[in-house]
Design goal:
mainly alpha
Length: about 100
C-alpha cells in the first residue's frame, strides 16, 4: 500500500489520503482527436456533401464530437472511486483541524 507523504513532524498513519497519480495510460487516448485533425489530406475534399455542407466542414464537426467522446471516456476511466474521494475529503478536514489546533 502506498502512503502519501506527510509534512515533517507529523507521524505517518493509515489515515493519510490515498496518493493520486495523473499518470494513467488512459490519458494517451487524448492524443487521438489531436492527431486525427492534423491529418488534413484525409478530409480535404468537397464530396460527399451532407445537407449541402462540403465534407471538409461536416467532418470537422464530427471531430468535435470525437473530442468530446474521448474526453468523457478518459474522465470516467481516471476519476477516483467514491471510497478514495471520501478518504481525500476526510484527510482535508483532518489536516484543516490540525492546522487550526497548531495556531
Amino acid at each position: 500500500m502506498s502512503i502519501a507523504s506527510t509534512p515533517p513532524g507529523r507521524p505517518v498513519t493509515d489515515e493519510v489520503a490515498p496518493q493520486r497519480s495523473d499518470r494513467s495510460p488512459w490519458n494517451w487516448l487524448l492524443l487521438v482527436p489531436i492527431v486525427v485533425v492534423l491529418l488534413v489530406p484525409l478530409y480535404n475534399r468537397v464530396e460527399p456533401t451532407l445537407f449541402g455542407w462540403p465534407f471538409f466542414y461536416w467532418m470537422q464537426l464530427a471531430f468535435v464530437a470525437l473530442g468530446v467522446a474521448t474526453t468523457s471516456i478518459v474522465y470516467r476511466m481516471t476519476r477516483r472511486s467514491p471510497a478514495e474521494q471520501q478518504a481525500a475529503r476526510d484527510a482535508i478536514t483532518r489536516d484543516a483541524d490540525a492546522g487550526r489546533r497548531e495556531d
